[in-house]
Amino acid sequence: MFPPALIAEAAVNGLLAGAAYALVALGLTLVYGVLHIVNFAHGALLTCAMFAAWGLHAAFGLDPYLSIPPLAVAFFGLGYALQRWVIGPSSHGDDGNTLLVTLGLSIVLENALLAVFRSDTRSLGGDAGFDVVEVGPMLLSYPRLVGFAVALVTAALLWALLSATDTGRAIRAVAKEKLGAQLVGIDPRHVYAVTFGLGCACLAIAACLLLPTFYVNPRVGNAFVLVAFTIVVLGGMGSIPGALLGGLFVGVVESLGGLFLGDSLGQLGIFVIFILVLLFRPTGLFGPRA
């Protein structure tokens, strides 16, 4: 039996790690909440963002945390352009076509990354990812503390954008009633593109937070998106508070699972929870539907 102090430390570190998961899930649930589609290119776009953060560090020595503002802006623009001029026109307004287009986009991006970077695994190197902060008897990961704080700030800013700005009101209007929004002069195509851009910006922030403690290769995003899907279902499809709280909860479950079952089985508890939620509460914790 592990001592209570070690269990508490694992739980807190899991809570901190879950913040990065929450950011990945935020982008996924935001796109679903407005466009009502599951974005299969989410993992590939996360991989692109991680390679972008790694490239800025390798070429210019830029700290990943300092890369957050420029990459968030760049990936917002990339997401806007993809939705406005690739995904939207290709889907012709059909959700089934949109799923196929995002799946195709994922395949194209992954293979482009494989062609450029091969299958080699890359990381920042050094020992920055092992920095710890002493909080009483606990040793907490410094990169995860930073990630936790940035994730909370990002979620708060996103919530404020959606609830207190004209853009946010337009996004909520289109999500609830597209035809009614059009009748009052809102352009759904622009709103869809802005929403997709915000989802990609969340991915860029998550990538910068993950990179100090994780590696990157052309397929790494798929592992995170698999967990993000679980979080979205747990919190409720389309729910931003659900994605944030679900991410934190999944981080704790993964950390405690790794402690009790070993690192190789650490994620077992996540998928057990996923099955239980689908069985007993398919709408999730906060979502109106799943």
Overall strand count: 2
Helix content: over 70%
> Number of helical runs?
11
Radius of gyration: 19 Å
Instruction: Report the CATH topology name.
Output: ABC transporter involved in vitamin B12 uptake, BtuC
CATH class: Mainly Alpha
CATH architecture: Orthogonal Bundle
Q: Which runs of at least 5 residues are low in confidence (pLDDT < 50)?
A: none
Largest sheet: 2 strands, antiparallel
Q: Measure the end-to-end span.
A: 38 Å
Q: Supply the number of structural domains.
A: 1
Query: Structural class, judged by helices and strands?
Result: mainly alpha
| Shape, per Cα inertia axes | globular
Task: Give the strand order, joined by hyphens, for the main sheet.
Answer: 1-2
Write down the secondary-structure element order.
Answer: HHHHEEHHHHHHH
Membrane topology: Multi-pass membrane protein
Family: Belongs to the binding-protein-dependent transport system permease family. LivHM subfamily.
Subcellular location: Cell membrane
Pfam family, one: BPD_transp_2
Task: Considering the chains and any ligands shown, give keywords for the structure.
290 residues, mainly alpha, ABC transporter involved in vitamin B12 uptake, BtuC, two-stranded antiparallel ribbon
Description:
The chain has about 290 residues and is mainly alpha-helical. It has one domain: ABC transporter involved in vitamin B12 uptake, BtuC (Orthogonal Bundle). It is built from 11 helices and 2 strands, in the order H-H-H-H-E-E-H-H-H-H-H-H-H. Strands 1-2 form a two-stranded antiparallel sheet. Helix 1 packs antiparallel against helix 8 (about 190-210), helix 2 (about 40-60) packs across helix 8 (about 190-210) and helix 9 (about 220-235) runs parallel beside helix 11 (about 270-280). It is globular, with a radius of gyration of 19 Å.
